[in-house]
Amino acid sequence: MSNCHVRIAYAPNKxxxxxxxxxMTGKTTVVTKKTSLSGSRSGHLSRASVSVAETGRAxxxxxxxxxxxxxxxxxxxxxxxxGDMLVFPAGFPPIYGKQILYFLDPVFSERSKxxxxxxxxxxxxxxxxxxxxxxxxxYAVEPAAEVSTTKAPATDVPEYNLEDEPVFxxxxxxxxxxxxxxxxxxEEPDFEEESCA
Length: 197
Known about the structure:
Layout lengths: L5 E4 L5 H11 L1 E12 L8 E12 L3 H5 L5 E2 L5 E3 L2 E6 L5 E4 L7 H7 L9 E4 L1 H7 L5 E4 L38 H4 L13
Antiparallel strand pairs: 1-6, 2-3, 4-5, 6-7, 8-9
């Protein structure tokens, strides 16, 4: 998570994750006011005092993180209303927001239909600049090569045949009884008993 610039979180189902999210949201200051009355028992309260205190509180406690509302669905299990989420952009305060229902937004819906590239571009060093300037390598983007859509000829792939499987005449089998190492003509392994004490 340390390399991510923007982190998005939904309602977790583990207390440990909820505590991490609560710590990530930070703290805020809450002002609390207390009033105390004092006086005689006859019903006359002659003195009243009001105390104001500032205390720290988590913006979202762990249990509040676990109770973030999720997306609402109809009887057919289709999402009809977005749920809540937390967004943590690097260098900025956290954001309490709503999920984006991309399939209901025409712009995002069109973007989701863009096909993935068959191959990606790659960085290659420019040899000319390195040789002329004697500086560290300078990289340029090399476009992805066109990927052939034709299948390789069948002769390039070796055929698998059951006839090529090796056959063992004296293959040992285990029928549940103890092995007779003398009959198999192999040395019996020496198993040492170990105690857990």
